[in-house]
Amino acid sequence: MSPTVVAVIPARGGSKGVPAKNLAAVGGVPLVARAVRECRAARLVTDVVVSTDDAGIAAAARGAGAVVVRRPGDIAGDTATSEAAVLHAMDAYEAEQGTTVDAVLLVQCTSPFIVREDIDGVAAAVVEDGADSALTVAPFHGFVWREAEDAEHAVSGATDGGHGVNHDKSFRPRRQDRPQDLLETGAAYAMDAAGFRTSGHRFFGRTELVRTDPARVLEIDDPHDLARARALAPLLDAPRPGALPTRDDIDAVVLDFDGTQTDDRVLIDSDGREIVAVHRGDGLGVAALRKAELKLLILSTETNPVVAARARKLQVPVLHGIDRKDLALKQWCEEAGIAPERVLYVGNDVNDLPCFDLVGWPVAVAGAHDVVRGAARAVTATPGGSGAIREIAAWLLGPSL
C-alpha cells in the first residue's frame, strides 16, 4: 500500500508586511492556490491541507482543491510556529479521514515559484530514501557579512564594524576554491510523521538536502518581494513560447463534454428533454486519436444520458456525473499506468481548473472562461462544439487530418 503523504500549507490571514498576503495574486493566481496546485500535481502527495483562520483563504483553498482545517486562534498569531500549525492540521486530518499519516510536508505558499518536482523531491527523500526529514536548498556563493555590535554601541544604534560569517574577511578565495554553501529556500520540507510528532520540530534525525533551481528561490515578506514575483511570473510560469504538443508529448487525451465537445448551449423540448449539438469533425478527430493508440476518456460532471450516448458513438470510455473530476482523473491515470504529465486535458470552464493542475498539457478551447484560458498551456483557435477536438488531433497527428 502506498504511504499516506499529506502536504500542509499554513496560510493565516493576519500578515502585517503584506496585508492579505496569502491571497495576493502572482501570475493571476492567489499564492495559496498556486501552492495547492503544485502540491496536488506532485506524484507522491496523497492530499493537500490548508491550515487557516481566514474565510477568504479557506474559500480560495477549497476552490483549488485543498482540504481546509480551521486553525485555532492560539496558534494563529504572529508568534505561532509553523510546526504548531502542521501538527494541528495533521491531527485534524487524521481524525476527519480516519487514516494515519505516514509523512507530512510543510509547504510555504509565500514561495510562489515552488514546483511539483521540488515537492516530490522532499517527499521522496523521506518515503522512498529513508530520511527522517528533508528540505529544499539552492546553491549559494555569496560572502555573508554581519555587523558586530557591543552593548555600548547597541544603545545608540552604532556598530563596531562588520565581520565575515562564512568567510575570513582577510582572505577572498575564488568561488571554485570555496566549500559549496547551500541556502535554505523556505519553500518545502518533509518529515516522517511519527518522528515529527516526537520531536515537535521540522529537523530531526537524518536530514536530506534536496537541491532546487536558484532562479526560483524567492520568499515574499514585503511589498517589494511581491512586486518582484509579479514581474518574474511571466518568465517563470510560461510554457515553451508558442509550443503546441505533438504525439511524442502525449500518451492520453481526456475530454470535458459541455462547452468542449458542444457549444455549451442546451435545447429543451416541451417534455423537458435536453438536446445538445456536437460537431462531426470532432468525431473524425477522436477516431484518428483512437487509431493512433492514444488512451482516451470523456470526463464530465454532467448527468445527462447524452454524455454516455456520445461516448458510445465515439467508442471512448466515459466517466460522467462526477463531482470531483480531479480525483477521478488522478485515479484513472494511476489505474491506466499513465503519467499525468503526459496527459492532455481539454476544458472550458472553472470546474476544469483542478484537472488542469494535474496534467502536463492543460488545453482550453476558444471561448473558454478567461481564467481557464489564462491557466491553459495552449488554446485552440476553434470554439467548443465547432471542431476544437479535431484541431487538437491535428496538433498531435499532423495538419492533414
From TrEMBL:
Residues 154-177 are annotated as: Disordered. Its EC number is 2.7.7.43. The keyword ATP-binding does not apply. Keywords: Hydrolase, Magnesium, Metal-binding, Nucleotidyltransferase, Transferase. Pathway: Amino-sugar metabolism; N-acetylneuraminate metabolism. Residues 165-177 have a biased composition (Basic and acidic residues). It catalyses: an N-acylneuraminate + CTP = a CMP-N-acyl-beta-neuraminate + diphosphate. It comes from the Bacteria. Its cofactor is Mg(2+). One of its GO terms (molecular function) is metal ion binding. InterPro entries: CMP-NeuNAc_synthase (IPR050793), Cytidylyl_trans (IPR003329), HAD-like_sf (IPR036412), HAD_sf (IPR023214), KdsC_fam (IPR010023), Nucleotide-diphossugar_trans (IPR029044). It is an enzyme of class 2 (transferase). One of its GO terms (biological process) is N-acetylneuraminate metabolic process. CDD domains: CMP-NeuAc_Synthase (cd02513). Homotetramer. Belongs to the KdsC family. Belongs to the CMP-NeuNAc synthase family. This is N-acylneuraminate cytidylyltransferase. It comes from Streptomyces sioyaensis. The lineage of its organism: Bacteria, Bacillati, Actinomycetota, Actinomycetes, Kitasatosporales.
